Amino acid sequence: MKNVVLIFVFSLLSSLIFSQQKGIPQLTSEFDKLLSEQFKSNETGASVLVTRKGQIIYQKAFGKANLELNVPMQVDNVFGIGSITKQFTAIAILQLMEQGKLKLTDEITRFIPDYPAQGHKITIEHLLTHTSGIQDYSSLQDTTGRGRIDFTPREMVDYFKNRPMRFDPGTKYEYSNSGYFLLGYIIEIISGRTYAKYLEDNFFKPIDMTHSLYSSDRRIVKNRVKDYTKGENGFENADYASVTQPYAAGSILSTTGDLFKWHQAVLSHKLVTKQTLDRAFTGYKLAGGQQIAYGYGWRTGAVYESPSIWHGGLINGFMSMVIYLPKEDVFVAVFSNCVCNSPEIITARLAALTVGKPLEYKEVPLVKSKQPEYTGVYENQKGQVRIISVVGDKLNSQVGRAPGFNLRAYQKDRFFIEQGLTTVAFLRNDRGEIEKLVVETLRGNEVWNKTNKPIPSNEGIAVDEKLLETYTGEYQVTPEFTFAITREQGRLFLQGAGQERLELFAETESKFFLKVNDTQVEFVKDGSGNVIKAIIKQGNRQADAKKVK
Known about the structure:
Blueprint: H1 2-20, H2 24-38, E1 46-52, E2 55-62, E3 64-66, E4 71-72, E5 79-80, H3 85-98, H4 124-128, H5 153-160, H6 177-191, H7 195-204, E6 213-214, E7 228-231, E8 234-237, E9 252-254, H8 256-267, H9 274-280, E10 299-303, E11 306-315, E12 318-325, E13 330-336, H10 344-354, H11 371-374, E14 376-379, E15 385-391, E16 394-399, E17 405-411, E18 414-417, E19 423-428, E20 434-441, E21 444-450, H12 465-471, E22 473-478, E23 481-488, E24 491-496, E25 502-506, E26 511-513, E27 520-525, E28 531-538, E29 541-547
Antiparallel strand pairs: 1-2, 1-13, 3-4, 5-9, 6-9, 7-8, 10-11, 11-12, 12-13, 14-15, 14-21, 15-16, 16-17, 17-18, 18-19, 19-20, 20-21, 22-23, 22-29, 23-24, 24-25, 25-26, 26-27, 27-28, 28-29
Helix pairs in contact: 2-10, 3-6, 5-6
C-alpha cells in the first residue's frame, strides 16, 4: 500500500508541474472542449471570461443568444446576473458605512422605524450575512400571479414584513432575498436616490461599466440575450416576472466583461478600503461562534483546496457564476441564458484548470480491510447526520437518507467525489483513531464529528396502518404552501401542491424520512392523541406545518 501511495504522489507531482507549465493555447483548447460539451452550438448558450494576474486569457461565447432568430451568442451580450447583484448592494452599504451614515451594528428600525422586528434586534450586518431570520419572500409560493406585478420598494417590504421570524437574528444562516431587498430600501432612504440611480452614479459610470444597468422591461438594451427554460417539449421562453421584485437582491443586467471591470475596481480598494473589503470576503461568525461560508455579498469556499470567493445568480431564464481565487489571482465568469444549464460546476473547473489543478484526482486503491476505519455516523453542529458506509466495494457518503456518493481515495485519509468538486478529509486523534471528517466544497468547509451511533437502516420500519391513517390529511406551512399526506397499501406519501408524490419511510412510529433528499417529517399529537402538526426538517431548516384537514 505504501508503495502504491508513493507512486501516486510522484505521478501527481509530475502532473501538477506539467499543468502549471500549460500555456494559454493549451488552456484555450481544454476550455473549448469543456464548454462546447455543455453549451451546444444550436442550443441556448453562454458568455465566458477567464483572467489570470489581471489579464484576460480567455473570452468566448457559445450557443445562441436567441433561438427563434437563430442569433449566435457574443462575448458582449447582456444577461440578467441575478444574485451577483448582492455584492453591489453590499459595497453600497459599506460605502455608506465608511461615510459615517450608518453602522453595521445599527438596528434596521433606525432607518425603517415601523418595521415589525417582533421583539428582536435585527442589524444591518444580519441582513448582509443572511443571518437576520427574516423569511425569504422569494420562497413563498405564488398562487395569485403576484410575481408579474410591479411593486414599489415600500410595497414589497409591506408584503413580507409581518411574516413570522425564522429564528433569532445572528444564531443561524439562511439565505434570504428579503434581507438584501431591505438593504436596497435603506440605501434609498439614506442616499435620497433610487437604488438604480445609486448604482449608476457610484458604480456603472465611474467604473465604465457601459453594458450594465438596473433591469428594465421597457428599455431597449443593446445586445440583451433572450432568456429560456426547458419543458417537456424542449426549450421554452422563460416566464415573465416583474424586475421590481428582485430589486437589490437580483435585478442587475451586465456582461462578463463588465463584471471583470467591477471585480478589478473592488480589488483596487477604490470603492471601499482594504480593511472593509477584508470583512466582506470573510465568513461571518454566528452568535455561537460557528463561522459560516458567507461574508457581505460574497460566499467563501474552496476549489480543489484553493480558497475561493464567489457568488452565483439565478433569475427567470438566466444563471450566472463568478469565482475568484485570491492566492492565484484567477477570476472566472460564466453567464448562461437558460435556467436549464447551470454554470456553477464548469466555472469552478475552468478556475481549477487555470491554476494547474486536475479536473479530477486520480484514484488510488484503498485496502478493503481499512474501510471499516472510516465507516460510522457523523454529526455536524446543525444536528445533521452523515453516514459513511461500504456500498459494493466503495466507501459511500450519505447525508441523512438522501442518495449517497462514492468516496474515492487519492491520498491517505483523503477522498474525492466522482464528477464533483468535493473532497473529504478524515482527521485522526493522537491514538490514530478517526474522530471527525471535513467536507471541503465550493460552498465552504464543514466539520462532522464521529459518533458511536449505529448506522441506521435505509429501508425504514413497518408501522401499523391504523396509525398511518391518523397522519393523513392536509398540512399548511404558510397560506401559500400546503401539502397532503396520503396512505396507500401500508405506505405513506407526501405531495406538495403541483409537485410529485414522494414516499415517506418510518424511522420511528412518528418520525419519517424521504430518500430523495435529507428531509425528515415528524408528526406531533395533542394530549387527546389527535395529530395537530408536522415538523419538517431539511438541512438546518425547520418549519411547522399545521394540520388543517
